[in-house]
């Protein structure tokens, strides 16, 4: 093959690599339009508006973040929820985005899901930037990763309950089952993993301090993954839990008591006081660990949600042609529109 031919081939392939792996300030991924999903006969038809001041129990509220890098995962997550929902027209999405790209992201969501009811909320990165300390993976240090802490401040007061989903998961069951769990007196519901070594999430400085350790006194603290949570937004506001989480972030900034992004503050505030949810609703860790992102198998038991938490993301591994076996379960929900190598024009 001649040098000229090789250069031409590399030139033609380069735009595809850029659009599928990372989105720049001038380029966002393009997506195919999703089909329209309609309610089943058993559903109460309802219309939701951000001006509503009364709680409608027929409406399912889901919050996710939107950004250029994880947009492909977010779109797949939305598509999976709608495809398996018994009442898809009753699902409302609340997207959190920084102002810099919100107009472009709104356009993409509207064109990909023309029938979707959604709102986009502006999250100011400066609200949290000074409180973030570096962690073991750069992606965990992005301000938008901390937006889940501020949901109660961002959402309408009419939203009393919300499901928070990360942008690297797909739902393979009716989300109404997760929405309908009884939180009891708890603020947060999530699958708990009490066999996990809880001590690994904090530094020796934390465990050597009686003051810090006392925060967990009287609680059977278990690990839970914050990528899937059912939240009582009203109780969150009443208990001022955003302030409690920020307090631990400020302590971390000064004394380095943990290593892992936004998760440890949630563990310090909520662990041992979480409404347990079936493990089927967060088959997490499919992206491997936070350093290498190696392939993993499913946990034993039934599956309602697949979550590629960890370094490895299915869209990146599929595009690199080095997928893990379970990445094939994510692929059917991928609406990414690949650019042709050569234009027909």
Q: Return the string of H and E elements.
A: HEHEHEHHEEHEEHHEEHHHEEH
Low-pLDDT regions = 1-25
Report the C-alpha radius of gyration, rounded.
21 Å
Tally of helical segments: 12
Tell me the helix content: 25-40%
Strand content: 5-15%
- What's the N-to-C terminus distance? 26 Å
Average predicted local confidence, pLDDT = 88
- Strand order across the largest sheet: 3-2-1-4-9-6-10
Number of strands: 11
Coarse shape = globular
Largest sheet: 7 strands, mixed
Which class do the helix and strand fractions yield?
Answer: alpha/beta
Folded structure, characterized:
The protein has 345 residues and is of the alpha/beta class. Helix content is 29%, strand content 13%. It has a 7-stranded mixed sheet. The chain has a two-stranded antiparallel sheet with strand order 5-11. A two-stranded antiparallel ribbon has the order 7-8. α10 packs across α11. The longest helix is centred in the N-terminal third of the chain and has 19 residues, at 3-21. The protein is globular and about 55 Å long. It starts with a helix and ends in a 26-residue tail after the last helix.
